[in-house]
Amino acid sequence: MKMLNHTGVTLLSQLTSRIQQTTNCSCLAEDAEFGSCNKLYTQGYTISVAVMRSLKMNASKMDEQSRLEAIRNFADSLRRRLNRGQCDDDALIAVAIDERAVWTSVGKVTERRLSEDHIMAITAQAESLFSKGLYTDGLRYMLESYEKVLQGGTVAISSTFPWPLPLWVIITAACLGLLLIVLLISIVVLKFCLPRRDHYTLGVRQPQQQR
């Protein structure tokens, strides 16, 4: 399985350069500790891409949580080391093929526009392409989607967006919830609509004393 060919690398490089050109510098006074906008030339957000065959993980730690933690640590560490942004206004997409793991690390300034919710939804869509070995297409989708969000636009998420639970579980839960609501309404209606029975006072007859 090929990772990225020369054509794919060139395409992704062009996309990352375009994002720098089509977005604005978002460094504010409060971000001075990280840097400031370049006054000599206009530059927007900087996004890097790192694709590797494997993270060389221990075979005993290949569960999903461990894989995500490993790719997250790698992405965060590499982004900080590269330090390509002007004021922490950068991002780095890391993909580990053997571990089937993807993570996007973002700087504090980038995170103000590109939120975790955006990243999770966009990554979920791209993973359907990664699972087919279409890494260039998946990364292209992510970059173009990030570009729209960083420009202040919105990204349409497909109706095939994966739910966190199986669809049959969601449908079953919805039906049970609806049934419970109907049952509660029926009980309330019966309680207030049926004629009320007369109330009787229970008494005990005292035996008469013999004279």
Automatic annotation (TrEMBL):
Alphabetic keyword roster: Membrane, Transmembrane, Transmembrane helix
Gene3D superfamilies per record: 3.10.310.50
Pfam family, one: TPM_phosphatase
Location of the TPM domain: 47-146
Highest rank taxon of the organism: Eukaryota
Listed InterPro entries: TPM_dom (IPR007621)
Segments crossing the lipid bilayer: 167-190
PANTHER family (alphabetical): GROUND-LIKE DOMAIN-CONTAINING PROTEIN, PROTEIN CBG04600
Name this polypeptide is given: TPM domain-containing protein
Provenance organism: Gnathostoma spinigerum
